[in-house]
Amino acid sequence: MWMSKTWLVQAFFIFITTESIGKLLDPCGHISPESPVIQLGSNFTAVCVLKEKCMDNFHVNANYIVWKINHFTVPKEQYAILNRTASSVTFTNITALSVQLTCNILTFGQIEQNVYGITVISGLPPEKPKNLNCIVYEGKKMMCQWDPGRETYLETNFTLKSEWATEKFADCQTKRATPTTCIVDYSPVYFVNIEVWVEAENALGKVSSNHINFDPVDKVKPSPPRNLSVSNSEELSSILKLSWINPNIKSVIRLKYNIQYRIKDDSTWNQIPPEDTSTTRSSFTVQDLQPFTEYVFRMRCMKEDGKGFWSDWSEEASGITYEDRPSKAPSFWYKIDPSHTNGYRSVQLIWKTLSPFETNGRILDYEVTLTRWKSRLQNYTVNDTKLTVNLTNDRYIATLTARNLVGKSDPSVLTIPACDFQATRPVMDLKAFPKDNKLWVEWTAPNESVRKYILEWCVLSDKLPCILDWQQEDGTTHRTYLRGNLVESKCYLITVTPVYADGPGRPESIKAYLKQAPVNVDSSHTEYTLSSLTSDTLYMVRMVAYTDEGGKDGPEFTFTTPKFAQGEIEAIVVPVCLAILFTTLLGVLFCFNKRDLIKKHIWPNVPDPSKSHIAQWSPPTPPRHNFNSKDQMYSDSNFTDVSVVEIEPNDKKPLPDDLKSLDLFRKEKSGTEGHSSGIGGSSCMSSSRPSISSGDENESAQNTSSTVQYSTVVHSGYRHQVPSVQVFSRSESTQPLLDSEERPEDLQLIDNVDSGDNILPRQQYFKQNCSQQETSPDISQFERSKPASAVSEEDFVRHRQQQISDMVQSSGSGQLKGFQEVSAADAFGPGVEGQGERFETVGVAAVIDEGMPKSYLPQTVRQGGYVPQ
Amino acid sequence: CCISPPAPLCLLALLLPPLRPAAPLSPAEPISQAYSLALYMQKNTSTLLQTYLQHQGSPFSDPGFSAPELQLSSLPPATVSFKVWHALDDGERLSRAQEAFLALTQHLQLVGDDQSDLNPDSPILLAQLSAARLRAQGLLGNMAAIMAALGLPIPKEEDTLGLVPFGASAFERKCRGYVVTREYGHWTDRVVRDLALLKAKYPA
After folding, report:
1. Which of B41, B38, B29 is nearest to B146 (CA)?
2. I want to staple A220 with a disulfide (CB 3.0 to 4.6 A). Which of A70, A308, B10, B99 is the partner?
3. In angstroms, what separates the C-alpha of A229 from chain B's closest C-alpha?
4. Is the minimum CB–CB distance between B65 and chain A shorter than 8 Å?
5. Which of B37, B127, B141 has the CB atom closest to A190's CB atom?
6. Percentage of the residues of chain A whose pLDDT score is greater than 90
7. Which residue of A has its CA nearest to B34?
8. Distance in angstroms (rounded) separating the CA atoms of residues A395 and A399
9. What is the mean pLDDT of chain A?
10. Interface predicted TM-score (ipTM) over 0.90
């Protein structure tokens, strides 16, 4: 029961205490100071004083006090027991801005009982405000601003104080800001000095700024001038008049101004000299402006003596100056169409539009006047910048003026010389070089005074035509740059023509580049292929190595591009060769096709003696006397042709040599038959074989008739006698050959011949033969008799032939021919051999057709004919 | 010449230092400032009087209203004969103006209070009265500066009104206001003349 009573009492006590603390009605103690504000970094000491009643109730004293800061127990070392009821705690160098500090007691059972709590706030005292300044916006109240200094972490009030010597004004209160400003509550009173300062105050202190003393009128920032307007003058194209309304402050203070202007499309402002606008005014005339140009103006004002502030800029206003006559004569030049006819030439007059600052207005048109001699020829009014006129070949003077609303420009005068005018006096030392990304042209002026220079230029190109651009320069110029859109890496042909009073001088030309194709190659490359170069051209290449700091030139080297690209030669040569080959082949094919024709033409059919119808030859006995003397032979026309064939060898050998040659012949014949046949082969391959093979037969023939050398030729025929019967006679084959091929030789030979008698008849004979061959088929028959006649000289031969004829008669006409030939072969075999030798000695005459020996055969026959004699 | 200059140079050297501190006390600057203020006030005095009369109703607001015979004993009259004015020296002129504007500031304050009662919905009039009073107050300061610069005694501030004005009727207050605003204009005109004379005498 007692126990329960005590518990109840305790519970009651606890209830009461908790209730009292909870309601803060009767705290068990308190902390001093109550709500401290301390400076950051300073020391702070708080004291907790317990109440007697509490101490009794809880049976505690100051020793039981526990300090807590932000719910953490403060170490005992910072405590100090002042007496039975009071305990203090000390903190050094406080850095926290706000802390909760509580005083607690440790009651029975180690239960912490909160007694009291405070919030410790720390911060900094205000700094002295700096840079206090005031400004009076026109029509508004004065505003002052200052630099509040460092952050205090505490609520700091700023008070702007202002006073006159005789009067104090209402304070202006404000809070911290950057910069801190305050607008006073009263209208400013100008011309009375006012003293102004700022006081900054917080829990840790109060500080005042320096006092400033000023007349508010010196702190005025006027409103900008308004209603700015611009008007031009028809009398003066170079002026614009500005007018405006001054701000109201003008009634209090005098003003000065800044007036700025710019050309509308420009961005930089020009300012009128301030000394011209240093007094109060409401208008201003701006001079030295360009005619017909839109200008934009703006202005501002401030107190005349410069105290105070410039107003803001006024709104911009613009105006256009009045037009003036064009300030410059246009550039003027002409082109003559080279194809002039009938004493007229087409001349194109060209000119350039003036730049906007030269036109001084809107160009209405151009006036061109052409004067021939002294008489005014014609006026033209042109809107374009060119005019094509047909002029005679005389000298003309053209003038050009540009016209606008106000007037005309000065005239540009151009002399168009007569057609036969020889231009002289060119400029000298013409140079062109790129500089500052422009192509500069420089020249030395001729000695005479030049009115102007005309520069023409165009891009030199293989593909495009040279489209001229041009410009005009004053006569005093000797260096300029081309004012056109020039492109890099293009070769420009620049022509400079000086223009004198009496006409243009001789043009000088030069080629130049604006920039010569620089190629940037990555540093990792050590090879670069230059493309689109012109063939057969000398190029110069220079390498420059660059780092970030700059570059260094390498040596220059030059090379010439080849005339033909790789493979181009092959492309040309191969088809040409092929074409030649093809043509040749075609020709060959053609020849092959037409070979018969050609052969007939070049190598006429050679009569095959073997096929001669000697057998048919009727054996009338030739008169013997024929062989005795040539004269007789020729006189006897019936046998001329036969006998003449024999003449040639005869000619080669003068008659006195005949014996000797016969000796040789005989020797040869008797000694070496094979050899002679060989010789015959060398001269005529086709006939040699038969001659060799005929050796035996010859011998056999010899056996039969000792003197039958002559019959060798026929021996080949002997072979053929069986298979075929040739219609060709010996004479037929030889005559064309002699005619066509051997004639030069013959002529030569003729010269050598001693006996002139022979020449004419032989030629006659040749002709005769030719005609005979061509015309009469009968001749064959007739000629066939020729060898026969030769052979028939010999009695022996005749005798034999008689025999043959007998045989023929017996065996029939078909075999008659063959027999004849056989007999002939037998008879002539040795003769041919001897003849071969003879030919050899003769040389060229011997190198003939296989028919030749046969044709000469009669000769040898005749010689042989002599032998027996 | 070159050997004997020390004496005058020394004299100059001795004289200059005391002059320098005296420079800010030069009367030209406060005279000029006071003159500017007086001119500025002068531009507004007629406006103030017109504004005042318009707000008082008939007969004050009648066109051509004038009552030159009305005077206030507490306000020194501005009218003075040229001979008298011309005979005054600078100190006397300044002190009389000082006296008058001292009274005017108090009277303008009184009129302002009266008008706050009579015409509480006329902020323009109240503002003009307030501005006029403030300018008069400023002029007093400027004149004090001039007198200080000229070494003249500054008159002691007196209460010229005392308890007199209280209990006046509305018409009396309107009349009083009329006289004050009128005299304010007259005294401003007179002080402009005074200061112009001084300005000529002490050019900047």
Report:
1. B29
2. A308
3. 29
4. no
5. B37
6. 24
7. A191
8. 13
9. 73
10. no
For domain A29-123, the CATH superfamily is Immunoglobulins (2.60.40.10)
Is A187 within 8 Å of chain B by CB? yes
d(CA B100, CA A84): 74
Which of the pair, A248 or B24, is modelled with greater confidence?
A: A248
Asked if B144 has any chain A CB less than 8 Å from its own CB, the reply is yes
Contact across the interface for A165 and B36, Cβ inside 8 Å: no
Contacts of A858 (CB under 8 A, 6+ apart): A642, A643, A645, A646, A786, A787, A790
State how far the alpha carbon of A427 is from the alpha carbons of A508, A537, B151, in Å. Answer: 7, 28, 89
Supply the pTM of this predicted model.
Answer: 0.57
Are the C-beta atoms of A688 and A795 separated by less than 8 Å? no
Pick from B32, B44, B140, B199 the residue to mutate for testing the A interface (most A CBs within 10 Å).
B140
- Give pLDDT tens digits for A143-189: 999 999 888 999 999 999 999 877 889 999 998 887 889 999 888 88
Nearest to A716 by CA among A674, A760, A686: A686
What is chain B written as a DSSP string? --SSTHHHHHHHHHHHHHHHHHGGG-THHHHHHHHHHHHHHHHHHHHHHHHHHHTT-TTTTSTT---TT---TTS------HHHHHHS-HHHHHHHHHHHHHHHHHHHHHHHHHHHHH-TT-HHHHHHHHHHHHHHHHHHHHHHHHHHHHTPPPPPP--SSTTTTTT--HHHHHHHHHHHHHHHHHHHHHHHHHHHHHHHHS--
| Most B-contacting residue of A141, A187, A189 (CB-CB within 10 A), to test interface | A189
Quote the DSSP letter at residue A793. T
3-state secondary structure of A338: coil
Helix (H), strand (E) at residue A119: strand A111-123
Identity of the amino acid at A567: G
Interchain pair A191, B141: CB under 8 A: no
**Is pLDDT at A331 greater than 80 in this prediction?**
yes
Among candidate residues A820, A811, A640, A618, the one with its CA nearest the CA of residue A714:
A820
Residues of A in contact with B139 (CB under 8 A): 192
User: How many beta carbons lie within 10 A of that of residue B54, not counting itself?
Assistant: 13
- Mean pLDDT for A86-95 is 88
In chain B, the domains with their CATH numbers are: 27-58+73-201 (1.20.1250.10)
Provide, as residue numbers in chain A, all residues whose Cβ is less than 8 Å from the Cβ of B138: 164, 189, 191-192
Class (C level, CATH) for A222-320: mainly beta
Q: What is the architecture of the domain spanning A422-518? A: Sandwich (2.60)
A215 vs chain B: nearest CA distance in angstroms?
Answer: 9
Domain boundaries, chain A: 29-123, 130-218, 222-320, 325-420, 422-518
Instruction: Provide the residue count of chain A.
Output: 869
Q: State the average pLDDT over residues A558-586.
A: 84
Closest CA to A185 of A199, A170, A173: A170
How many whole angstroms separate alpha carbon A676 and alpha carbon A841?
12
What's the rounded Cα separation, in Å, for the pair A499 and A472? 10
Pick from A478, A402, A410: nearest CA to A440: A478
CA–CA distance, A558 with A538 (Å, rounded to integer): 7
Q: Does the structural domain A130-218 have CATH classification 2.60.40.10?
A: yes
The amino acid at residue A392 is T
Identify all chain B residues contacting A215, using CB atoms and an 8 Å cutoff: 33
Q: What is the residue-wise DSSP string for A582-627? A: HHHHHHHHHHHHTHHHHHHHHSPPPP-GGG-GGGTS--PPPPTHHH
Q: Do domains A29-123 and A130-218 have the same CATH topology?
A: yes
Query: What is the architecture, at CATH level 2, of domain A325-420?
Result: Sandwich (2.60)
Region A667-693: mean pLDDT is: 42
Inform me whether the C-beta atom of residue A192 falls under 8 Å from chain B C-beta atoms: yes
Task: Please count the residue pairs, one from chain A and one from chain B, whose beta carbons lie less than 8 angstroms apart.
Answer: 47
Of B40, B131, B144, the CB nearest to A165: B144
CB A202 within 8 A of CB A126: yes
